Amino acid sequence: MNAPLRRSGVVIMVLFGLIFANLNWVQAYKADDYRTSYRNPRVQEAEYDRPRGVIEADGTALAQNQATEDDLKYLRVYPKGEAYAPVIGYKPVSMGSVGIEESENDFLSGESDKLFADRLSDMFTGDNSGGGNVVLTLNTKAQEVAYKQLKNNERGATRGAAVAIDPQTGAIQALASFPSYDPNELVTHDKTAASKTYNVLLKKENNPLLNRATSQTLPPGSTFKVVVSAAALQNGYDEDTEIPAGSVYTEGGATIHNAEDEVCPGSEVTLKEALTESCNTGYAKLGVKLGADKVKAAAKAFGFEDDTLKVGDLESGDGLAVAASHTGEIANEDGSTDKAALAQSSIGQRDVRMTPVQGALIAAAVANGGEEMRPYLVQKLLNQDRGTVYTAQPKTLRTPISGTVASKLKDMMVSVVENGTGTNAQIDGYTVGGKTGTAQNVENADPHGWFIGFAFNDKGEAVSAVCVVLENVSGGHASAEAARIAGLIMKAAAGGGN
Predict the structure, then answer these.
(1) Peptide bond into 179 cis (omega under 30)
(2) Which is deepest, 33, 156, 227, 315, by most CB within 10 Å?
(3) How far apart are CA 94 and CA 328, in angstroms?
(4) What is the bridge-based pairing of β-strands 55-57 and 133-136?
(5) What is the domain-level CATH number for residue 290?
(6) Could you tell me if residue 317 is inside a domain?
């Protein structure tokens, strides 16, 4: 055999080897992905041969099936539509699913190992195996109040989000994003119509497909002062410690004013008064005094910089991904602290960014004595016969502050609602604490309005912690409106009605 033929033979053998290796890789590692892919029409047809499980909360079906007479035997239906869409998501015929429909797909479709005994039983009985049911932690009154108030807010905001958490367990009571969409239009068996609807939603200016509660990060404004207060209390300060203030503060080219002339005009103010009045100059000077490392450490302790958090099933760890909140570098090119950036960051501006989920977790940790519980949405998994397969067991996520610091922060935040900028969040019969925030963003754009807070009942039990944000609100008082909405959500979550 001459040299050219030998080389050709070697090349052919290598190519056959690569094909063989790829075939084994597909069979061993990718088979399941291809089998379950929404692009596989056989998978779609097989899934619609059996009833998909129900997603519910408070005994109310949020996603269920409707029998049809077409080739696909069942149509997915979302009775509550827009109010729950950012959480529930949708399960379309020819596109990828999202939300709880995606994260709990195996259980809802009946393919989960947790339902193996049910499938085995059906093989002997001849019954048609169906999917399992998912029970969510959502308080339907709180969820619907949250969405309704965001949609009909009194400041004309066209975008916003709200999150409410049970501070003692981490159970999500409400998770709303506005604007939203009708998932029913995306699950029609008319694939062309569903695709057209999706493309229209994708191009809409306010991006209704975006879950702003979990995926949107915005400058948090003065709500970040709770984090800086925690840093101060952990480093020798107390509620009545006097800190430098004044009407204006300039640091390295950054000039910081208070929202109004009457806010902490004196040269000093106590830490508690500074939070109550939302004293920008006081917190800017405090942050610079503490130093960037301590401010960033306090934020990280609460969960900033964490890009691994998902809100869903505590057992599997799967669910709705939560974007990481960030403080920014707060550093010059040579690595030294940028004091101007630190001053601005200490009032929640500059490069500080936070999700509504993170804001609610901060308030929840304060309300729960310093212990931040892992947030979750899946309370129970039930088989087709509604037998319990799984019940969530609350887990601690982190402990950002001590019980002593939490107690002092609670007192300071209650003062904000009773005597300061957060009075709109007050609820009859409950002790409410919180912090407002007005956040400047891009040049010439209207500011965002924030509120984070918590409510205790008359037994001293923390019943809800909340974060509300309204984006780009014109005419001022954005944070006051966020506080009003937050109060209504917490009241509903606590069983106080609308």
Answers:
(1) yes
(2) 227
(3) 40
(4) parallel
(5) 3.40.710.10
(6) yes
Taking a C-beta distance cutoff of 8 angstroms, is the pair 51, 65 a contact?
yes
CA–CA distance from 339 to each of 335, 344, 414 (Å)? Answer: 12, 9, 31
**Count of CA atoms in the C-beta half-sphere (13 A) of 462:** 30
Q: How many CA atoms lie within 13 A of 205 on its CB side?
A: 2
Task: Determine the 3-state secondary structure of 248 from DSSP.
Answer: strand
Residue 359 identity (one-letter amino acid): G
Write the Ramachandran bin of 269: left for phi over 0, alpha for psi from -120 to 50, otherwise beta.
beta
| Residue 87 forms part of a structural domain | no
Domain assignment present for residue 237? The answer is yes
pTM: 0.91
Among 475, 476, 466, 446, CA closest to 159: 446
**Helices and strands in the chain: count of H runs, count of E runs:** 18, 19
Which residues have a catalytic role annotated?
A: 222
**Integer Cα distance of 283 and 347 in angstroms:** 6
Q: Which two tokens stand for residue 75?
A: 């149509």
What is the separation of C-alpha 474 from the centre of its chain, rounded to a whole number of angstroms? 25
Q: Spell out the per-residue pLDDT of the chain, length 498, in tens.
A: 566 667 776 667 777 777 777 767 666 665 555 555 555 556 666 678 889 999 999 999 999 999 998 889 999 999 999 999 999 999 999 889 999 999 999 999 998 888 777 666 666 555 667 899 999 999 999 999 999 999 999 999 999 999 999 999 999 999 999 999 999 999 999 999 999 999 999 999 999 999 999 999 999 999 999 999 999 999 999 999 999 999 999 988 889 999 887 888 888 999 999 999 999 999 999 999 999 999 999 999 999 999 999 999 999 999 999 999 999 999 999 999 999 999 999 999 999 999 999 999 999 999 999 999 999 999 999 998 899 999 999 999 999 999 999 999 999 999 999 999 999 999 999 999 999 999 988 777 899 999 999 999 999 999 999 999 999 998 878 999 999 999 999 999 998 655
Give residue 231's domain range.
215-378+395-493
Q: Is residue 59 assigned to a domain?
A: no
Tokens of 393: 């067991």
Q: What are phi and psi of 418, to 5 degrees?
A: -85, -30
DSSP string, 41-79: HHHHHHHTTSPPPPEEETTEEEEEEEE-SSSSSEEEE-T
Specify the number of domains making up the chain: 1
Which residues make Cβ contacts (< 8 Å) with residue 174, sequence separation at least 6?
Answer: 138, 139, 142, 143, 145, 146, 162, 163, 164, 466, 489, 492, 493
- Give me 20's structure tokens: 């063989």
Contact criterion met (CB below 8 Å) for 386 and 242? no
